[in-house]
Amino acid sequence: MFEIKKTMKRLKFILPIVAIVGLVSLIGHQSENYSSRVIWNVSKDLSVKYFDIKETLGNPENFSKVLEASIIKKDHTILDLLVVDEMVVVENHAHEYTELVELLPNIENLVHVHKNSDDSNSYVAGGIKILSVEEKGGEFGVFYGPVSKNLVHALQRRLDGGIENEDTDLTGLVRFNRVEEFGGHFILGLYPRKMVSEN
């Protein structure tokens, strides 16, 4: 009888701890699911918007360089253009771009815009910082970081159909690289272009 009371006392102490650990784990899992859905949707929308602008402007070669040299204000990027639209367009192209933007998705509703002390912007989607965008070889990538390995795995399972346990994978819709400067976390690249073109 004494042993049963002792065991019950231990269980009363242990069960709340187990419940808290389980709840924290569930919250973490739900947070990763939310982040993965949001950043994938933002990546698709950024890709659609980028290629719509490119097509509207006649698919020029070296499109990124053309945009940065002629349409985007100095010290701003293509990511700035895709998120905050006409605020970063040079004056002599503002009217045409404003007319074009009315036909494109408004990304700013999906992305949190943070004003930095140097007047630049930084962008966060699903709790993850958007680092940059890039078009290369007809593919459009959106880069996020730092992200956890769990988030990388959640996206790989969902989008690529399996998990790559390496520190680097530069194939598929989900591409990543472990970066020591980020405390061993990852820079994540999402490449929705092929999937978007199939829809």
SSE pattern, N- to C-terminal = HHHHEEEEHEEEH
Rg: 22 Å
Helix content, binned percent:
40-55%
The total count of helices amounts to 6
Order of strands in the sheet with the most strands?
1-2-3-4-7-6-5
> What's the rounded overall pLDDT mean?
80
Structure, described:
By secondary structure, the protein is an alpha+beta fold. 49% of the residues lie in helices and 20% in strands. The chain is built from six helices and seven strands; from the N terminus they run ααααββββαβββα. The chain has helices at 2-56, 63-71, 78-84, 94-101, 149-160, 193-198; strands spanning 112-115, 121-125, 128-136, 139-147, 168-169, 174-178, 186-190. The protein has a seven-stranded antiparallel β-sheet, covered by helices on one side. Residues 195-199 have low confidence and may be disordered.
Present the secondary structure layout:
Layout: H1 2-56, H2 63-71, H3 78-84, H4 94-101, E1 112-115, E2 121-125, E3 128-136, E4 139-147, H5 149-160, E5 168-169, E6 174-178, E7 186-190, H6 193-198
Antiparallel strand pairs: 1-2, 2-3, 3-4, 4-7, 5-6, 6-7
Which key phrases capture this entry?
single chain; 6 helices; 7 strands; 20% strand; disordered C terminus
